[in-house]
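Worked Example 4.2. Read the sequence first, then its structure tokens.
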Amino acid sequence: MSWQAYVDDHLLCEIDGQHLTAAAIIGHDGSVWAQSPTFPQYKPEEIVAIMKDFDEPGTLAPTGLFLGGTKYMVIQGEPGAVIRGKKGTGGITVKKTTLALIIGIYDEPMTPGQCNMVVERLGDYLLEQGF
């Protein structure tokens, strides 16, 4: 299966009539493996900051998580595995796998829990597959 199919078929799947606003699979080096057409254009330093928070949990909390110039307030996650952020009625979930970051961005009426489930389920699957 292509990386784009993982984004299109798994990350952008419908859950209770809702789906993510944008999604991507990005290598630890910031390279795009696959993304939705709506995924924001991000800066390399934004991915560097996210990777640093996985290595040193809590580094994003004071400044927020930035992606595509949008600032998300960092909320509870799983240190070293998942970062979650909130902005207004939406938010972001980032799951780290061995080689990539699985990123999902949502807006109401999708809930944070639905976003977490979609992103983390694919991330867990890819971890099991060695990615």
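Now turn to a second chain, presented in exactly the same format:
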Amino acid sequence: MVQTQLEAAREGTITEAMARVADRENRDPEFVREQVADGQAVIPANTHHEALDPMIIGREFATKVNANIGNSETTSNLEEELEKLHTAVHYGADTVMDLGTGSDLDDIRETHIEHSPVPIGTVPLYEAVKQAGSPEDITTDLLLEIIEKQAEQGVDYMTIHAGILAEHLPLTDGRKTGIVSRGGSIMATWMEAHGEQNPLFQVYDELCRIFAAHDVTFSLGDSLRPGSLADACDEAQHAELDTLGELTRRAWAHDVQVMVEGPGHVPMDKVAETVERQQEVCDGAPFYVLGPLVTDIAPGYDHITSAIGAAMAAQAGAAMLCYVTPKEHLGLPDEDDVRDGLVAYRIAAHAGDVGSGRPGARDWDDALSEARYAFDWREQFRLALDPDRAREYHDQTLPEDNYKDARFCSMCGVEFCSMRIDQDARDRADGEMDRLESTTNLEASPAAAVNLPPVGTHDTGDRPSLEDDGREQVTETTGDD
């Protein structure tokens, strides 16, 4: 009989996963156990995911980042999805969600689970639509069958859209952008067509039994999240959140771990308020937010508009941030978009941890600042969040090796470099300013691993190819093909 992380924690047991998490977070294992036992943190760790390096999500720990990948009917194949997975892990994703809606979903999912050192999440409702042919044709039995299959495959957490109820649908009538969650729109269509209550809500206790049998973590979907600033914090969003609070407590009663998903599009003045309301309604269950985007005017740059809100949410207590790529609202992200989204969100997560005073989080900033002041270019590159990009930009104008020891860059040149001028002034024997010394020791920092360089510490040097797996590449087809 499987014992979930929550059940073990409640019984006073520190599991191997908890011990590993404590090491990565630089925290006492007993504190980790207490946080899991109280439902304030989750360790997504399906018993069938053998390649997993356990991690923890909770407001008392370093802020985590999720990357969404996945194919569509028109774009991407298994090889490309595997490459996206490795790119996400390399640039610091703490978890990866496979949101594929195209072909070969089982093969792609199994490949991810077989090779991913980070937790894999899914939205099983997407596969249900794929198999049924339309939202209206989904059946309860099909939902349970797919959810149990994915649990057996090793999925660590699943987004379940059980909080959107029939009585919530009229509350969306005055919105500017209606229901923007894929899962929310699917369930709303089903309820409208059948005149019945949300089937995921109806069989929720059965879902809890399936999750408990494989130690799958709930990620309770925010089906009615706002898709525009105008819809933020409205009655529909709040009504669903109240239901998610009830579902959180019901899952806990089955010893199943829970985190709760959040918006969305939220103006800056309401970001902290949104986090605080979720923490109150859901009894402190970890909050997992998409962005939020703080303005709607920048298609093509929504990794920036959302990273602003994400940093604010992290400082306010959000436990995990779901990255947004530059392609948000425009198209399916490719490998480069995954990189840009991950870097933006690692910045947001780290900035939130610095802002909230997370132990040791600022040590990385201080070490890089000291290297910058010392004109230690190689150390700057080594400490950079994205060393390749930092080196690339420097070398575009000053590529020769001798410039790695220069006391200037191409921005100001040798005559107008303020740091060089400051150093020279401090070096004068008759000056009144003292010389500045580097004092930060990252090896002695109390920071969690995600707040120390380098990011992407998982070894992907021997990352698999499809040929190694013995799998055939699947090519997507469109149109009459």
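Notes for the reader: Residues 360-444 form one domain. Residues 460-481 have pLDDT under 50 and may be disordered.
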